[in-house]
Amino acid sequence: MTATPGRAGFDDDLVRRIHREVGLRLQTTQVGRRNDGLTEMAGIAERQYARKLIADVLSEHARQRMDGGQAPLDTTVEQQLGEAVYAAMFAAGALQALLDDKDLEEIDINGCDEVWVTRAGAAYAEPAAPVASSDEELRKLISSLASYAGLNSRPWDEANPELDLQLRDGSRLSAVMSVAERPSIAIRRHRFEKLTFEDLIGNDTMTVEVADFLAALTRARLNVMIGGATKAGKTTLLRAHASAIDPRERIVTIEKARELALRKNQESHPNCVEFEERIPNAEGLGAVTIRQLVRRTLRQNPDRVIVGEVLGPEIIDMLNAMSQGNDGSLSTIHCRSARDAFDRMATYAIQAEERLPHEATYRLIAGALDYIVFIKRDLQSGNRRIETVLEVNGYDEGRVLSSEIFAVPRAGAHAEWTGTPPARLDELAAAGWTMPGGAGAKAW
Q1: What is the pTM of this model?
Q2: Same domain, 81 and 102
């Protein structure tokens, strides 16, 4: 092993090992605090505690060296090692300045010196300064971030070229190497952790009438799928739906990499469990897929099941869960329109090991799903708006029957009530909704 230039007496492998151990101990402490009803340590308190853990692990490392007949590290070298571990946990090098910029929504890195950022409300990205001096340094930086993220350490190397994780500030990072000329990293920022329908009215995503209806869907415990293209704002809208859930309900979320972070809002979601897909270890063992987690969720006594994003065969288990009593479940899916979501779900289902034909999937959708909400991002302005709210009305002659309750009447306009009364009017009325023009309190 070759020591990193500028570091005397230790190498990157040792930094990673100590970093991993400290990260696991800190994670265990944070989970214990949550289980005891306490808030997680944050800011200065978390950093001070991490300093203590680093000192503890370094002391153990020194004893192990002496037990093995080796001399302990020089005091100066040990201090440098501790600082390297601390920096790996709480800093992201030149990337940190971008992560600290609250106005950024997206950070795209096509190699160390080709960086693009998209600001809130902007339609297109703009160039930014390099985040590393070389692609190798960039790879080490991302690998370091991955070793303390999510629920378990995630390797990013030639054997594991794909990486998905949640950064400490809640941002979602996706990275890939060895499939392009240079490493590619995409970071999606979530600028508002606590988001409500009122916030989305304020930023022009929807009208009061639409927000009133969507909040009623959630309160009425109807099953909702949120559809849209990449960058459309699906996760943001999902968070707003979650804000309308009764705090007394038990929520189980399932994600490829934790992103929703509902547990951080203990006031609104005090009884929330966040499941995260687990990748296999170096021996190919220990993997836990999204599909397995959806099935496991049914034994976790949930009042609500939220799957952050349906990307494959787990759609079968999700729809089964919805049709077997998990009312009020929520999820998102990539699609081009509200009705296209039906075909997208059928495509995922036929790719599963069950090879479920389209007709069977459509029947499953009709018996499980109540509404599809489609959100769209305007490519010219960057604005995100609700375009369609589609009610699922059953199955007939090889297709899912549906009706538009809200739709955009013309280009550039907000979605409006189509005049079609929902078939589930009684449930929605009990949740506080009245048809536009009628009297009654708002549901949100």
Answers
A1: 0.73
A2: no
